[in-house]
Fold these 4 entries.
Entry 1:
Amino acid sequence: MFKSEASGAGLNTGALANLDSSIQKDIDDGRIFGASIIVGREGKIGHRKTFGTVAPGRKTADDDIFLLMSLSKSYTAALVLRAIDQGRFTLDTPIAELVPGFGFGGKQNATVRMLLTHTGGTYPGLAPPPGLTLPDIGNLEKLVAAMGAMPAAFTPGTRCHYNSFGGICTLGRALVLTDPKGRSFSRIAKEDLFDPLGMKDTSFGLPDSNARRVPISFTEKNSTPNTPAVIHMLTAPFGAGMEVPAGNAFGTAMDVFRFADLMRARGGNGSVRFISPALFDYATRNHTGDMMNGAWEFETAARNLPPLRANFSLMGGYARDEGHFQTGLGSTASPRAFGAIGGGSTMWMVDPARDLTFVFLSAGFIEGLSHMQRLSRLSDLALAACD
C-alpha cells in the first residue's frame, strides 16, 4: 500500500504547490477540465491530488478510470520486452516471421525493433484501413490483417513517423501468435502484467456503462470540434471486448503509477521481475538517434517551430537523452529519463537520476504539440520538487 507524504519522499512542498497552481491555471483558462496526478520518489508517493471535473457536475476522483490513449503502448511494449527475455523472439526478428501476411509491399524487412520505434513503415493513418469500420479497429486480428495487406509507407528503417495503430497493434498480434498458452491479447495483458502488479482497475477495453469511466471531452479552446461524430471516432473502437494494444487501455492514476514505478525500479521490485535489468537498461535509451518525427511535420511548419526530434525508446514512449529540444519529459530531466505519452491527455515519466515517478491524467482532450508543451512544463515543475 502506497502512502502519501511529501517530506518523507524527499519532495519540496512549496515546489509541489507550484505544480498544482500550474495545473489549476490550465483549468481556469479553459484548457483542460480536470486532472489526477501522482508524484513519487524512491517508490514513495509524496503527492497525490485531483483537480476540476471529468464530466459536467462530476468532480475528479482518485478512482476515476481514464482512457489512457497511447500511454497504452508502454504496456504492450513491456509485454514485448518480456517475451524477448523469454526467448520467444528477438528485437531483430522480422515481423513477417511472427505475423503471417505482414511482409507484403516492402515490409518484409521490418523488425520488432523498428515497430517499437516507429521506423517500420507500417500503416500510419488514424482512420481505419480501407474496408474496415471504426469498431473494426478493436478487432485485433482483423485490424492487423488489413494493415499487413497494405504496402509500406516508407522503406523500413529509413525514416521515423509516429504510428498511432500499425506498429504496436501488430506487435500485440505477434504476442498472441507466439503465446505458449494461446491466449487473447487482453488476457495476456491482464494475467501477465496487470494482475501481478496489482493494477486491478486496468484493462484493454471498458464498457461505456462503467460509472467510473471518464468520458472523452473537448474544451472550447481545443481545435478539434466537440461533435458527436468526433466523440464516436474516439470511443467506438475502445469499448468492452475491444483490443487495441496501441491505445485502448483504461486505468486509474494509481494503476499507472504502479506500472511506472516498476519501471523506475528497472523492471523489477523484489516481488515482481517483469523485465531483466540488462534488457531494461538497453530499452530505455534513445533508439532513433537524431531522426525527426515525421508525424509532426505539418504542425511544426505551421507554427514556425523546429522539427521535432523523435527520441523513441523501446518502451512504447520516449527517452530524454542529451540536448535542448521539445520533449514532454521536461528540459531539466536527466538524460536517462524516459516515459510514455497518450494523445491529448496522459503521461507517465521516470527520472532515474532523481528516483522520481510522475503521473498525469487529464480530462478535456488537448491534441498535438500543445499537449507535449504542457507536459514539458509540468514535468519540469515536478522535477523542481526534488530536494
Note: The first helix runs from residue 13 to 28.
Entry 2:
Amino acid sequence: MHVTSLIYYKLDLVGYHWWLITNGLNWMLKWGTPVFVMISGYFLLNSDLSNNPKEFYRRRLSRILIPYIFWCLVYYVLNKGVASLANPLDFIDNLWHSGTEYHLYFINVMFGLYLFTPLIKKYVLNKNLNIIVPFLFLCSAAYLILYSFFGFPQVSNIFNWFLPYLGYYIAGYWIGKKSPPKHPVLLIALSALLLFLGVLITRKTFFLYTSQEMVLVFVKHFSVPVILAANFFFYIVINLSNKRLSSFKKIANLSELSLGVYLIHPLWLLYFKNTSFFISAFSSNYILWLVGLIVLCVFFSFLSIYLIKKIPILKKTI
C-alpha cells in the first residue's frame, strides 16, 4: 500500500495505465488496517487479563509506549533535524496528535482502544452487539462523509483517534463468536467486488474533486465498501485460520518482528525510493521499480528488526 501510494499524485509522470493499476492495488488493500484493529479486538476483548485494568494497562502500555516514543523521536529528528530537539513542546504536540510520521497515528488509535478496553468489556459486550456494532459502523461512515464534504472536525489527538475505529474493535469480538461461514468463497468474491466498486468510483472522483478527502472518500477506512469488505475478510480468516494454517507455525515467528517492521519500514521505503537505481527504473521500467521496492523494503525491514532484537539496549524499542 505504501509503495503504490507514492505515485497517487504522479499521474502525468507514470501515465494513466500504471496509475490506475497501482492505485487499484493500493485501495483494494485498504481492509488491512481495519482487520488489524479487529484482530486486536478479537484477542483483547476475549482475554481475562482485561478484567484486571491495572495489569492490563501495565502490560499493554509497556509493550508499545517505549517503542512509540523512541520511533517518534527518530522520525522527528529525521524530518526536522537535531536542532528541533531544542523545542520539546513541539515534539510533545506531535506525540499528542498523530506521531511524527504518517504511519504512527495507528499507535494512537491503539492507545485509545487499550484505554477503554476494560470499560468496553464490562459495559458493552453484554449488550446486543447485533445492534451496537452496525450502529457504530454507521456512525463512522457518517463521520467520514461529514468531514470529507461538510468540514466536520476530524479526530486529532490520542484520546479521540480511536473513536471511528471502535466499530472494528468490537466487531472483532462479535464476529469471532459467530459460526463459520457456509460459503467462504462467495464472501471473498463479494468483498473483492465491494473494494473494486470503491476503486472504480475513486477513479472517477480523482478527476471530479480537488480535495484529497473528497477524492478518497469511497476507499477510506470508514467507507461502506471497506467496512463490509473488512468484516467479510475477517469473518473468513478467523474461522479458517486454525483449521487451514496449522502447518505454517514457523510463519508465526515473524509476528515477534511485526511491530518493529511496522515502525521501521518507512525508513527503508524512503531510502530505496531515493536511490539512483530506483529513480532511473521509475522512468524506464515501472514494474521493476514497483516489485523491487516492495521486496527490498519488506526484506530489509524484517532483517533490520531481527538484528536490532539481538542488541539488548535496543530490544525494548521494537
Note: The radius of gyration is 20 Å.
Entry 3:
Amino acid sequence: MPAPPPAFPGARLLFSLDPAVAHLNHGGFGAVPVPAQRAQQRLRDEMEANPVRFLAQGLTERIAHVRAHLAGFVGADPAGTALVTNATTAVSVVLHSLRLRAEDEVVVTDHGYGAVALAAAETGARLRTVPVPLRATDDEIVAGLTGAVQPGRTRLVIVDQITSPTAKLLPVARIVAGLRGSGAAVLVDAAHAPGTLPLSVDELGADFWLGNLHKWAYAPRGTALLVVTEQWRERIAPLVVSWRQPEGYPTSVENQGTADYTSWLAAPAGLHTLRTIGVEAVRAHNSTLAGYGQMVVGRALGLDGTDLPDPGGALGMRVVPLPEGVATTQEDASALRDRIAAELATEVAISTWPSGGLLRLSAQVYNRADEYDRLAERLPALLNGEMTGQR
C-alpha cells in the first residue's frame, strides 16, 4: 500500500467546501479557491456599480490582458487563443467552423467526453468511434487512431489528452505527429490538462487544442481556452455573431454581449493561488493521494494492484472498476453516484464502460487520506445492497 502524502496545512481553508462532505470529484466541476471567489465578487461589484462603463469601456483590453496571461500558462500564442466558457463550447466552435457535410467523417475514441461525441454527431457527418482498451499501450492507441483515418473522408480526429471517464493519459504528441499529412485536422480535448500537466501547446502542433482552467487551475467556473493554429484562424466562425465579428478571431469568439466576463477576469487570481501553493507540489500531492485512494478503495472491493487501471502518468484522478453488474447503464451510474453522495456524504464520479462500471476518484490539496479510508470502509456494504436490490 503506497503511503499517502502529508496533508497541506490550511489547504481546506482556501476553499468554501462543506466540511461534512468528502469532495472526491474535483475533476467534475473543480473548486474555486477563496481568493479567486473574492476577486470575482469585486469584479461583479464593479460591474453592477456601473454596467455601461464595465461592459463598454476597456473590457476588450482587459480580456486581452487575461488571455495573454492564461495563454502563457499553457504555452500558447495569445494571438491564436480565445477565452470560452468550457471545453464543450470550444468543441462546438470548431465543429461549427469546419462546415462538415454528410460525406465527411469525425473520428473519436470511446474514452471521450459524451457531450463531445453528441456535438460531433449533430453536425450530420459520420461519427467513427475507435475502441481503445482500458489497458491499451501507447503504441496500440497511436496505431488505432492513425489506422482509422480515411484519406479524403476523415476531416477531424478528436483525442483527449486526459480522458474523463477513464482517467487515462493519452499519447497526444505521438498521435498528432502520426496524423500529420493525413488530411485530417486534429483537435486535442485537454479539458483536464491545465494545472495537471506541464503544457506547451504550440509545440504540440495540434490544429485545435482546448482546455478548462476551472478544474485543476483554480479559475472560476466558465473559464476555458481554445487554441487554434495560424492556418485555421481566419476560418473560425463564432457560435454567436457580435459587434466584434469584423475583428476576427479571437475577439469575435470571446465577445458575447452581456455575458458575465468576471470569471475570465478573475482567473489570474486562481492561478496566483496555485502558484503560491506551488504548482509542482500540488501536482505531486494530487497524484500520490489519488493513487492511494485508488489502492485503498480497490482493495476494499477485492481488487489488487494488477486489477487497477494505470493512468499512464502522474494524474490527480484514478478509476476503480466496480463489481460485475453495477452501473452498467448511464442511468444506473447516475443513481449510484447520488446514493454515495446521500448515504456516504461523499462526492465521486461514476461512469459506464464495456467491462463494467468505473468509480473515478479525484484528489486535490483539500483532500486527506482518511476521506478515502472512510469511503473504502463503507462502500462495499452499499454496493452489496445495490447488487441485491436493497435500498
Note: The two ends are 32 Å apart (CA to CA).
Entry 4:
Amino acid sequence: MNKIPAISILMPVYNAELFLREAIESILNQSFSDFEFIIINDGSTDKSKEIIISYNDPRIKYIENEGNIQLIATLNKGINLAKGKYIARMDADDISINERLKHQFDFMESNQDIGLCGTWFETFSNTGNIQIVKYLCDDFDIRIKHLYQIHLSHGTSMIRTDVLRKNNLFFNKEFIHAEDYELWTKISVYSKLANIPRVLYRVRNNEQSVSNVYKEIQTENTKRIIVNQFQKLKQGFSDEDYSLYLTFAYSEFSLFDKQKVKKLDELLTGLLYENEKVVFLPVERLKEYWSEKLFHVCYNVTDCMDIWGKSVFYDKRRMSLLKTIKKYIKRG
C-alpha cells in the first residue's frame, strides 16, 4: 500500500528548458522530503520532457498532456491528481529555498484554521537586480489588501487540500492571468489566509512574465475580481465606485477634491453598514482600518476635515493626536 504524502507539489511545465533543472532540483533538495512532485508537461516542444525524465526520483510523478491545454486546465488537473494533505505550487522557472516546505508544513500543522499560506519572496533577474517582497501576514490584513490587489504570491502558496475538495474550488478559466487572485478570494470564504514572514521562494523576473505580456487582460480580470468582492456589500458597485475605492486604497491624495471625498465617505459608510449585516470582514477591524485611512485623506485634501468630523468613521482619539502634534510644531 502506497503511503499518502504530506504534500503534493504541483508544477506545470511548458517550454521551460532554460531554468527547469534549477526549479526541479530546488524541490528535490528540500529538507522536508515527505512529498510527491507532480510535474505536468503541457505540450512542450523544447527539451523539457528530456530534462524531467532524466531524474530518477520516485517522488516525481510525471504527467504528459496530449497537447497544450494551457495553465489553468493543467493546474486543475493537478489538483485532481494530488494525494497530499497539502498542495504546494511551484513554477518551472523559479526556485524554492531549501527550508520552504518544512516551514510551510509546520506552520499549517500548527494553525488548523489556515487554509492557504504563502511566504515572503525574493525577485531576481539576469541583470542581478534583487528585491525582497514582504507581504502582510495577518488574515485580516491580507483580506483588506485583496479588496484592491493580490497579496499572496501564487508560486509560494500551500493550500489545505480538504478546503479545495470539500468546497469544489478550482482555478477559474474566466479569470485567466489572475486565476490565483480569484481562487484566493474564494478560499477566504471558507478559511483564513496567512503569509510566513520569511523569504522562502525566489521569483525569476523576465520579459515574458504574465504581468508584462498580458498586462491588459490581467488588469481587466483583476478589476472583475475586485468588483465581485464589493458586490457582496453593494450590488450596484459601479465603475465610479471602483475608481474611487482604488484612489482611496492607494492613498492618491492629489486625485481627490472635496466633492470626491464626500462621495468616498458615503461609499465607505454604505459598505460598512452592509458589512455589519453579512460580516464579509471583521466589523470593528474594518471600521478602524477605514477610519484611519479616511482621516489621512481628509487631512491631506484641502478643506475636508469637516467631512471627517461628521463621518461615522470619526474618531476623537485621532483628533486629539492631531492637536498634540500641531501644538508641538508651534512650540518648535
Note: Residues 7-217 form a domain with the Spore Coat Polysaccharide Biosynthesis Protein SpsA; Chain A fold (CATH 3.90.550.10).
